[in-house]
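It is worth pausing here to work through a concrete case rather than discussing structure prediction in the abstract. The textbook approach is simple: state the sequence, then state the predicted structure, then interpret. We follow exactly that order.
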Amino acid sequence: MALQNLKNRYHNISNSGFGPNSSVEGGRLVNPDGTGNMRKVGIPFWQRISMYHTLLRMKRNHFFLTIFLFYTSANIFFGIVYFMVGVDKLGIDGAHSQWEQFLEAFFFSSQTMTTVGYGKVAPAGLLANMVASVESLLGILSFAVVTGLIYGRFSRPRAYLRFSDNVLVAPYQGGKGMMVRVASYKNNHLTDVEVQLTLALHVMENGKLETRFFQLKPEMARINSLALSWTIVHPLNEESPLYQFTRQDVEDSRMELIVNIKAFDDHFSNMVQQRTSFTYQQVLYGARFLPMFERAPDGSNTILDLAKINRHELVQF
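Step two, the predicted structure:
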């Protein structure tokens, strides 16, 4: 009944950035890390991928592994080129085995690319010097790019927010409320923190499954400072599209809650934002969050235990 009366009672938003046709959706709309759950096709791969953004957002271990593989591959390539030109042009003793000669060429390539130049091996002849010159230029350019990427990754402002794993539905002000908890887990300081809640519901209209989007109104949409944790509450009252929704209604509608946080980082004097989403499988009924901070034993400060962000207890409606 709640699903049937939804369209008549509440106005859905059409500029959510997602399509209304549920039949073309694959799984959730937004991944837990905030990225869109989509794959773009129709144009060549190199036109769809921004290497700069990919390298900036790549996981740290993947990033340094990529640099290592590029550096190793480039030196293997130039090592082969020097080997084909002739190791005698590098002053390498031909009495060594071919593997040892290649290793000498490989390490000469690494010294040239990094502009170290120990002086033990030096190119002789026009062709060997031309290859060494090209590699030196490539080394200067590549290390400049890598240095810029490392600085960009290090200096890029981020929100560093940790969300609870579940959405809790608990008694709230004589009724019910939907709650999500968030906390900042780094030593940065976020002020003027704002939240936007977007609800996606799948409803049947005229024999066709449609996705409807609604802007949920939180009890408090903005706080001055995120020093500890923040429990974001959406009251499930007459103003909510989820009013009178049962657990079965939530499952039937394949509900997805998209949470977007925007804040001001006073260390960088810049705006940062982070988003995530929760699907209907992550909704817990009859549970409320327990405090995740306490006074220090000596009373000198407050301790925020980030391991307790998901801590909750069962309650009766």
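Step three, interpretation. Residues 126-155 form the longest helix (30 residues). The mean pLDDT is 86.
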